[in-house]
Specification:
Structural class: mainly alpha
Radius of gyration: 22 Å
Strand content: under 5%
Order of helices and strands: HHHHHHHHHHHHHHHH
Distance between the termini: 59 Å
Shape: globular
Largest sheet: none
Number of helices: 16
Number of strands: 0
Length: 372
């Protein structure tokens, strides 16, 4: 009887999924790469998959140059100088702190060290030793510990808690070195999620951030995780947090895109409802994000994050031309959601890009009609 019920369930799912797949096949026909009708992303000037930069969501040449120097020479001073010259409460500083910490963490994973060689990321340890009062180094160290906890340990284990407690202490040290800097508190948002801060503890931490940088997009994205269903909140609480942020967003702020991130965080693993990506909730969130993108400064460092997520949703909703309009602005860099959740971010991004190109051309688009 259990087998029968299982077969019936599979049949019902198939009845829902098949019309969706059939409709998609009707719009886009798959052909081999050499076929004259094959859509080719290269025709639009898009970067080849193997050359896509998975480190960042968008260009930051100063950061790339400094990372190259630091990793080649193992001398931290170029990183110290770059952070010292970066606006303290801005999105760029937060992204650069994450990048330096991530670089050190990946180096350590690749070269854990041994009897005859030193571990990777040694430049960060030297930075903290030689410049213990440097606020930039303290922030990078705190973020490094957070990334190490998530990368090397399992949430809920003693090992994870020990590293997170160390990160919490490091956040406190970084905050003392730069009282007006929101970055140490933004880093602590991840600690709060990992250690399961109470609602009161989390709200107190969040108020410290709002006092220093009330419109900080990176901080809002980090806080959203805490309120998600898979962590310490619920779908309703996450949506409420995102919608409140969007409602109080100043003109030109990308906070208007927060509901789309909340929707993404609560996507079901299997979507069997036809038209899910055209539903009112998803459509409203996409329109909010599109409005945010159109209203934001062209040089807003968080703009690429929103564009990347929009590509995912616009392709799923078969809004090909709008997806292409986002692609022309971010192509070349894929270090953002949703691609970074995949084991091969460049490959995932390239698939969505190819779908966008194919759908665009199937509906009469061409390189000549695409606005740059």
């Amino acid at each position: 009887m259990e087998i029968l019920w299982g077969l019936m369930a599979l049949l019902m799912i198939g009845m829902v999924v098949w019309p969706i797949m059939a409709r998609r096949r009707a719009g886009i026909q798959q052909v081999h790469a050499g076929h004259p009708d094959a859509a080719d992303p290269a025709n639009y000037g898009f970067v080849r998959q193997e050359l896509l930069d998975v480190r960042m969501p968008g260009p930051d040449q100063d950061l790339l140059d400094v990372l190259d120097v630091v990793q080649r020479t193992q001398d931290y001073r170029a990183a110290q100088q770059l952070l010292a010259g970066t606006e303290a409460d801005g999105e760029v500083r937060w992204q650069r702190v994450q990048a330096f910490a991530g670089a050190a963490s990946l180096e350590l994973a690749q070269r854990p060290g041994g009897v005859s060689d030193s571990p990777g990321g040694q430049w960060l340890r030297v930075w903290r030793t030689e410049a213990p009062k440097d606020a930039g180094g303290a922030a990078v160290h705190a973020e490094f510990l957070v990334q190490q906890a998530w990368r090397t340990a399992t949430p809920g284990t003693d090992e994870f808690r020990i590293i997170m407690e160390e990160a919490r202490s490091a956040c406190g040290d970084a905050a003392l070195l730069a009282p007006g800097d929101p970055i140490p508190y933004i880093i602590e948002l991840s600690v709060a999620r990992g250690l399961g801060y109470s609602r009161e503890e989390f709200e107190q931490l969040w108020l410290r951030i709002l006092d220093r940088a009330p419109a900080h997009m990176g901080a809002h994205l980090a806080a959203l995780h805490y309120w998600c269903e898979k962590w310490h909140g619920s779908r309703e609480q996450a949506y409420a947090f995102a919608e409140a942020a969007a409602a109080r967003a100043p003109q030109g702020s990308l906070l208007a895109a927060m509901p789309l991130f909340a929707v993404f965080e609560h996507l079901p693993e299997v979507i069997v409802v036809q038209g899910f990506y055209e539903s009112e909730v998803v459509t409203k969130a996409m329109h909010g994000a599109l409005y945010a993108v159109h209203s934001a400064r062209p040089d807003d460092p968080m703009l690429a994050h929103v564009r990347h997520l929009l590509i995912f949703f616009l392709v799923r909703a078969e809004r090909w031309a709008e997806a292409m309009n986002q692609l022309v602005h971010v192509d070349g860099h894929v270090g953002a959601l949703p691609w970074t959740l995949a084991s091969e971010p460049a490959s995932d991004y390239a698939i969505y890009r190819a779908l966008a190109v194919a759908g665009y051309e199937a509906n009469g688009g061409s390189p000549a009609t695409l606005l740059h």
